């Protein structure tokens, strides 16, 4: 696998003049905008990693006058807090990215779905929004953004669950197909993008796609904002080029005693020390929305696993059998194994269950529970059993 | 409930009466009254012409749209892994001692509720809590005491 | 056309067809649970997952639209492992007391378990640790949360078919459940007791409240005289629970079986259905005269039928301002009950306090109706016990009766005679047709101008049906109706009742007389009928109803000799003082939300 080493980047928080960039964007044709984003190789920064250019291309192709750009600001993955910082510091770029997306796909309406836990940001975000609307009007583009507040549900970060919530319902993911590009919020073609993706797309229009695509690796172009926490002397957010190895990451951010790194939050992968060197942080290695948690040797990986399973058992929407019941079985199962109330070989049954959840669950939440479960159980089995 | 009926009408005038107005209306009621009573949910059902069971079913999905009694200040302590590693238990202990309630309970004067919640996005400054919508981070038992005293003095 | 391959067999389907439907075209059976022919696609149980070559995950056959060139495998190792796990997971959150459960041998989860999950239990039991509720508050049905597998069929039924949403999905994650408004008892929420949810529940989570033991006790009590009445819709569906195909008429055998069970008198609800037509027909004509001739502002038009207790509770909750539009007639069940302990007891020289009146109904709401406090016109509880069609089948099996080989027999007399007009009450449009056959003849002296008395415009499965009957050649008494165009409507399923009532609320409803049945298809699709149900099954039962009508000698209610006799000997005339006392009722305003 290609490795790039640990390189800090300053793109997301770079100060720019939104009027300048939006004016450029609105002079470009939608097809040109889409091409630039495609050329940059940008993939979704929320964790799912879908090529942004393709998403905009598909949505643009649908013949329907009413379309939406949705900004997914329902950041809820444990260990991720980068979107909060982005909204706090450069909200104007988020709005700008939405306007560019709108131009690309042919939308006049935008929705920012902001998680309830970030409600304290709202007054400031509204002030920025007012400025943005004035600017857009000046430039002559018909595009308005509205806010929609979440109310404490992690699953609403899933795109179709988010749409259900906007429409006034329970945040229960939908059957796919149809995909959001054809039928999204209110049944209309929608491009739903992460906060960071939207900011990045604005920067790509400013700087052009080439410089962005020089960063990172072939499958993971560009840079990403990482949220780093846990046993580290330097917790916080850092913008880094994609394609570094976990070892390089730990060298920079570890406390000298790093036993494991959880890449991608509760729905991500646990990388043990013995695999630091060969694991690349990127879509070809361990993909991530940016959450990086470091655990040193004082931490019990059983506690970590239990914490994640408890999280999923509560936050699952509860709709589909493999996830609703599977999460409970995994949680209760590891508890009983730890207490010695069932044989330790029961863990093997649970690993098989995690595999079933991966292929049979209705949405990404259920499909991802097995990631943490399997990597922690495989690499730290003794800590679960004893 | 004259006040409640008026509030629901006010919120419906502001947000509309279609299905996608439901959650903003419920949020508005929670903001004013801390939680959703049965009467409130029935009022909303009447105003939007949907069944009370539907209103309840939607409200109960969302952690912040409480259908059980909550106090004026709802303290949500993050229990996800980093906050858990960085001293959440001490924070909870401090709060339980100070407020004389357990996690999940509300003080008898209906001022404070204490509950646990999942990741609120402050992992680099753990342990963290929310009091209503305000986050408080990098907490220690001493800091928590100061913060709560501050709320107790608000009248 | 879209071409795809399932298990290496090619099939062509229309766009919009799901993989499940495409497989059925090839007679390939993919197991399902949350899927139901009457309801929209859910895709939540994941039982129907199959493998699509090239896809990252398994796909839900019921929700995935067929696409050109798709290659599906329904029985690979990956699929089988997943299915087994899914069934095991469902079993782990289900309180399995199969040996004691009413749905034993009729439970879809049981069948899946037998197909995919027999052997050692893999996972931990999740039910024992958590508190669960068994709600027995309603007289019509029991909601047992410990058996719920959260397929949401009941919720979708109550929302899509009945437009009530008495139950909804609540909470999330491990606390997710199907709940009434804030978990209140079902008797205290806006629920019509229609039982459509019971018809579609795959397990024993929703079942009717049974009165089988109480009925046996009465039958074996030597002091009690037990009479039974059977609704029209029962005779075309009972067979389904006794090994017959849908749509087979088993009337004669049913009567014999009831005698063999030990009922002292086997009588027919159809008798009182004919009686209802006499009372309601007269009431309608009286109202029309009041409105059209006397200009009476206090009389309300349109008049609604009142024999469906699910519909009655619906209008009491949701449109109480129109209670005056309801016919004051009781339902045939309740008319019968009132007469059983007065007229019948007198005729048979019985002590009414020793008469036990049982009814067999396609309906769960009738259990609620029998319990209504005003249903005591006889001085006693008019109907003591209501059994569903399903419960009767259970009793027949309990008695070891060889149903198929029974000799058919006839109902007893006094309240056992009926006409074809009565039997069609079981289908949507039937009450209307029966009423028209009689009312038209009263007014004009002639039969309705439809071939063979079959008023086809009011028949069929269309949600809302309309018809206009021109009245010509009136007799002197009814001259005021000469040339009038009687506009009628028929609705079935509460979602359609709602459509009619919305229009009535605007004041622009054009109708004079409206028949409303709570259940899709009318009583033949009732909440107490054999399970499973589908449009196809209901159509077959409906066909059988009209077939029964055609085979009867008498086809107009006013020709029923038992009806003629009861007026002569006892009631006097339709809407008489005594008729009002025993056969008419009033209604109650209830909370709307």
Kindly describe this structure.
The complex is a heterotrimer of chains A (386), B (155) and C (593). Helix content of chain A is 46%, strand content 14%. With 386 residues, chain A is an alpha/beta fold. Chain A has two domains: 196 residues, NADH-ubiquinone oxidoreductase 51kDa subunit (Rossmann fold, 3-Layer(aba) Sandwich), CATH 3.40.50.11540; 85 residues, NADH-ubiquinone oxidoreductase 51kDa subunit, iron-sulphur binding domain (de novo design (two linked rop proteins), Up-down Bundle). The radius of gyration of chain A is 21 Å and the shape is globular. Chain B is α+β, with helices and mostly antiparallel strands. The longest helix of chain B is centred in the first third of the chain and has 14 residues. The two termini of chain B are 25 Å apart. Chain C starts with a strand and ends in a 10-residue tail after the last helix. Chain C has 18 helices and 18 strands. The longest helix of chain C has 24 residues. The chains are: A alpha/beta (386), B alpha+beta (155), C alpha/beta (593). At the A-B interface, strand 5 and helix 10 of A face helix 2 and helix 5 of B.
Q: Characteristics of this structure?
A:
heterotrimer, B: 155 residues, alpha+beta, Glutaredoxin, four-stranded mixed β-sheet, 7 helices, 4 strands, 48% helix, elongated, C: 593 residues, alpha/beta, five-stranded mixed β-sheet, four-stranded parallel β-sheet, 18 helices, globular
Please give the CATH architecture of the largest domain in chain B. Answer: 3-Layer(aba) Sandwich
**In which range does the helix fraction of chain B lie?**
40-55%
Mean pLDDT of chain B: 96
Give the radius of gyration of chain C. Answer: 25 Å
Alpha-carbon distance between the termini of chain B?
A: 25 Å
Q: Which stretches of chain B are low in confidence, meaning pLDDT under 50 for 5 or more residues running?
A: none
Helix content of chain C: 25-40%
The main β sheet of chain B shows up as:
4 strands, mixed
Strand order, biggest sheet of chain C? 2-1-5-3-4
Shape designation of chain B: elongated
Oligomer: heterotrimer
Order of helices and strands of chain B: HHHHEHHEEEH
């Amino acid at each position: 696998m290609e490795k790039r080493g640990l390189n800090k980047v300053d793109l997301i928080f770079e100060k720019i003049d939104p009027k300048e960039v939006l004016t450029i964007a609105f002079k470009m044709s939608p097809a040109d905008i889409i091409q630039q984003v495609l050329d940059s190789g940008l993939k979704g920064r929320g964790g799912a990693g879908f090529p942004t250019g393709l998403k905009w291309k598909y949505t643009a192709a649908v013949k329907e006058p009413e379309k939406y750009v949705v900004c997914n600001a329902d950041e809820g993955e444990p260990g991720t807090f980068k979107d909060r910082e982005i909204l706090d510091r450069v909200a104007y770029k988020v709005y700008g990215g939405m306007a560019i997306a709108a131009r690309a796909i042919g939308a006049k309406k935008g929705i920012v779905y902001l998680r309830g836990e970030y409600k304290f940001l709202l007054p400031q975000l509204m002030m920025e929004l007012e400025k943005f609307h004035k600017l857009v009007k000046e430039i002559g583009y018909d595009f308005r953004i509205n806010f929609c507040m979440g109310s404490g549900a992690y699953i609403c970060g899933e795109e179709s669950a988010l749409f259900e919530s906007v429409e006034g319902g329970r945040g229960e993911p939908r059957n796919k197909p149809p995909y959001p590009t054809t039928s999204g919020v209110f049944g209309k073609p929608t491009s739903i993008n992460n906060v960071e993706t939207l900011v990045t797309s604005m920067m790509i229009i400013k700087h052009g796609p080439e410089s962005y695509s020089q960063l990172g690796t072939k499958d993971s172009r560009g840079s990403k904002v990482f949220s780093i926490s846990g046993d580290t002397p330097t917790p916080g957010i850092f913008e880094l080029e994609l394609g570094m190895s976990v070892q390089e990451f730990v060298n920079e951010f570890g406390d000298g005693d790093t036993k494991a790194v959880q890449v991608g939050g509760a729905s991500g992968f646990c990388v043990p020390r013995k695999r630091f060197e060969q694991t690349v942080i990127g879509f070809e290695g361990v993909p991530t929305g940016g959450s990086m948690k470091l655990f040193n040797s004082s931490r019990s990986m059983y506690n970590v696993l239990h914490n994640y399973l408890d999280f999923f058992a509560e936050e699952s929407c509860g709709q589909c059998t493999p996830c609703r019941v599977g999460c409970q079985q995994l949680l209760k199962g590891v508890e009983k194994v730890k207490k010695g109330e069932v044989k330790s070989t029961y863990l093997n049954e649970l690993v098989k269950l995690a595999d079933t959840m991966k292929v049979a669950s209705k949405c990404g939440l259920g499909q991802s529970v097995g990631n943490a479960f399997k990597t922690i159980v495989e690499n730290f089995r003794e800590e679960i059993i004893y | 409930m004259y006040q409640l009926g008026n509030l629901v009408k006010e919120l419906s005038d502001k947000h509309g009466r279609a299905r996608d107005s439901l959650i903003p209306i419920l949020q508005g009621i929670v903001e004013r009254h801390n939680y959703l009573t049965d009467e409130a949910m029935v009022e909303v059902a009447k105003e939007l012409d949907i069944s009370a069971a539907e209103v309840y079913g939607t409200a109960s999905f969302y952690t912040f749209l409480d259908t059980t009694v909550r106090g004026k200040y709802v303290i949500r302590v993050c229990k996800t892994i980093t906050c858990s590693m960085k001293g959440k238990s001490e924070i909870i202990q401090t709060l339980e001692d100070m407020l004389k309630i357990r996690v999940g309970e509300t003080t008898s004067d209906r001022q404070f509720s204490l509950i646990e919640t999942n990741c609120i996005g402050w992992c680099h400054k753990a342990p963290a809590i929310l009091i209503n919508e305000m986050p408080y981070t990098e907490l220690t038992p001493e800091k928590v005491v100061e913060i709560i005293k501050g709320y107790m003095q608000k009248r | 056309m879209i071409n795809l391959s399932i298990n290496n067999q090619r099939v062509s389907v229309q766009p919009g067809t799901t993989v499940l439907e495409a497989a059925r075209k090839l007679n390939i059976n993919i197991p399902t649970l949350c899927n139901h022919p009457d309801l929209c696609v859910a895709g939540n149980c994941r039982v129907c997952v199959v493998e699509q070559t090239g896809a990252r995950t398994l796909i839900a056959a019921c929700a995935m639209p067929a696409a050109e060139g798709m290659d599906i495998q329904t029985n690979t190792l990956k699929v089988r492992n997943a299915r087994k796990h899914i069934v095991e997971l469902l079993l782990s959150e289900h309180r399995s007391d199969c040996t004691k459960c009413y749905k034993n041998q009729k439970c879809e989860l049981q069948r899946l378990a037998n197909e995919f999950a027999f052997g050692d239990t893999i996972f931990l039991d999740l039910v024992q640790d958590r508190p669960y509720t068994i709600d027995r508050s309603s007289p019509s049905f029991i909601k047992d949360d410990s058996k719920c597998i959260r397929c949401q069929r009941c919720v979708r039924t109550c929302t899509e078919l009945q437009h009530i949403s008495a139950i909804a999905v609540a909470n999330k994650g491990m606390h997710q459940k199907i709940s009434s408004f804030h978990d209140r008892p079902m008797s205290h929420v806006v629920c019509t007791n229609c039982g459509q949810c019971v018809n579609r529940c795959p397990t024993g989570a929703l079942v009717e409240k049974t009165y089988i033991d109480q009925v046996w006790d009465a039958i074996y009590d030597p002091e009690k005289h037990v009479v039974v009445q059977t609704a029209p819709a029962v005779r075309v569906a009972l067979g389904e629970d006794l090994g017959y195909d849908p749509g087979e008429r088993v009337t004669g055998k049913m009567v014999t079986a009831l005698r063999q069970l030990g009922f002292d008198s086997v009588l027919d609800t159809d008798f009182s259905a004919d009686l209802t037509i006499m009372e309601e027909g007269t009431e309608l004509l009286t109202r029309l005269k009041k409105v059209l001739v006397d200009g009476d502002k206090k009389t309300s038009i349109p008049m609604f039928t009142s024999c469906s207790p699910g519909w009655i509770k619906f209008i009491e909750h949701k449109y109480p301002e129109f209670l005056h539009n309801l016919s004051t007639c009781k339902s045939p069940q309740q008319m019968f009950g009132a007469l059983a302990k007065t007229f019948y007891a007198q005729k048979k020289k019985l002590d009414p306090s020793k008469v036990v009146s049982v009814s067999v109904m396609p309906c769960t709401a009738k259990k609620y109706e029998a319990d209504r406090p005003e249903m005591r016109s006889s001085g006693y509880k008019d109907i003591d016990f209501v059994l569903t069609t399903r419960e009767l089948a259970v009793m027949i099996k309990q008695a070891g009766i060889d149903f198929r080989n029974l000799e058919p027999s006839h109902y007893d007399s006094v309240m056992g005679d009926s006409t074809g007009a009565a039997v069609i009450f079981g289908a949507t449009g039937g009450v209307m047709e029966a009423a028209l056959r009689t009312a038209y003849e009263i007014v004009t002296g002639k039969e309705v101008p439809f071939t063979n008395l079959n008023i086809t415009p009011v028949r069929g499965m269309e949600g809302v049906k309309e018809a206009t009957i021109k009245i010509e050649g009136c007799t002197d008494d009814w001259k005021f109706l000469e040339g009038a165009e009687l506009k009628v409507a028929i609705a079935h399923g509460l979602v359609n009742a709602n459509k009619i009532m919305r229009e009535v609320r605007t004041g622009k409803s054009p109708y004079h007389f409206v028949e409303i049945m709570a259940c899709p298809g009318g009583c033949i699709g009732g909440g107490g009928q054999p399970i499973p149900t589908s449009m196809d099954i209901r159509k077959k039962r409906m066909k059988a109803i009209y077939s029964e009508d055609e085979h009867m000698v008498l086809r107009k209610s006013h020709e029923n000799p038992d009806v003629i006799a009861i007026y002569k000997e006892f009631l006097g005339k339709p809407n008489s003082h005594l008729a009002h006392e025993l056969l008419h009722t009033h209604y109650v305003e209830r909370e709307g939300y």
